[in-house]
Amino acid sequence: GAARFLNTRQSAVSRSLHNLEERLNVRVFTRSPAGAVPTAFGQEFIRWTQTILDNVAGMNARARRTGKGENGQIAIGIQTCVLPGRFSAFTAEFRTTHPDIVFRYSEGTGKRLLRRLQHGQIDFAVVTRRNLVPALRVTPLWSDRIVAALPAGHPLATQLEVSWADLRHEIFLIGRDNAGQDFETLIQRKLGETDIGPKIRRHDIGSNRIIALVQNYEGIALLPASWLPLIRDQHGHDVTIMEIRDAGGSSHLEFGIVWRPDNENPCTRLFAQYIEAHRP
């Protein structure tokens, strides 16, 4: 029966079993005119080999799925001005339909993330869409309105909204993770041609600490509007959030997800297809 299953001769099977018993130096089968039955060791040996064969089959299946991009890891870098959880919500459907693909997250400034992306250290970067290298692929994700944070007792805090001209004498506090480069460029564009150039102070601290400086009357700050619920929860009535208006309407940060077309990670190609199909 074993010979028929293996599509070989019975003598070949008998010889293989005999060679196996010689290598192990133990009897695997007890033979009689009625046939061959496993010894106590033979039964244990069969259990061992079945486990090994199952593991090999599982490894082969996993390798095939990895080659198709159905199993593996995707490294995502997220610019730290992105609201926590926003990108995770965007990937929810993909993670449900591809449970064997694991996302690994890191954060940093847009410039640092793009450098890591080009060096192959991450697969995707979620950043503001400015100064992107032409060789990179980018898909727009969302737009975030820019607002101003002022101390609650500031003279402008009683207004419903402010203009850029209203802010021309203010000190702008720029942090490392609240899209500092993008905000600084925007400030220069809006106020750089005025008689009094904009006053900008750069700090190597995060948004929450920047807001604390605003709260202590050290200056004002620009923020993505998506952060407002967190700011209000933490700083309450000590900080006033103002809409900024001018002839062109409100200003925005444009976010996108960027990747290298030559990335050989099969999971990356699969996720890139998902991004193109589900772009907001």
Helical content band: 25-40%
Number of helices: 10
Roughly what fraction of the amino acids lie in strands? Answer: 25-35%
Mean pLDDT equals 84
| Structural class by secondary-structure content | alpha/beta
Major β-sheet annotation: 8 strands, mixed
Concise account of the structure shown:
The chain is of the alpha/beta class.
Set out the fold topology.
Blueprint: H1 2-6, H2 10-24, E1 29-32, E2 35-38, H3 40-67, E3 72-79, H4 86-90, H5 92-97, E4 101-108, H6 110-118, E5 124-128, E6 137-151, E7 161-163, E8 171-174, H7 180-191, E9 199-202, H8 207-215, E10 221-224, H9 228-235, E11 239-245, E12 252-259, H10 266-278
Parallel strand pairs: 3-4, 3-5, 7-11, 8-9
Antiparallel strand pairs: 1-2, 5-12, 6-10, 6-11, 6-12
Give keywords:
280 residues; alpha/beta; 8-stranded mixed β-sheet; two-stranded antiparallel ribbon
Explain how this protein is built:
This protein is of the alpha/beta class. The chain is built from 10 helices and 12 strands. It has helices at 2-6, 10-24, 40-67, 86-90, 92-97, 110-118, 180-191, 207-215, 228-235, 266-278, and strands spanning 29-32, 35-38, 72-79, 101-108, 124-128, 137-151, 161-163, 171-174, 199-202, 221-224, 239-245, 252-259. Strands 3, 4, 5, 6, 7, 10, 11 and 12 form an 8-stranded mixed sheet that branches. Strand 8 (171-174), helix 7 and strand 9 (199-202) form a beta-alpha-beta unit.
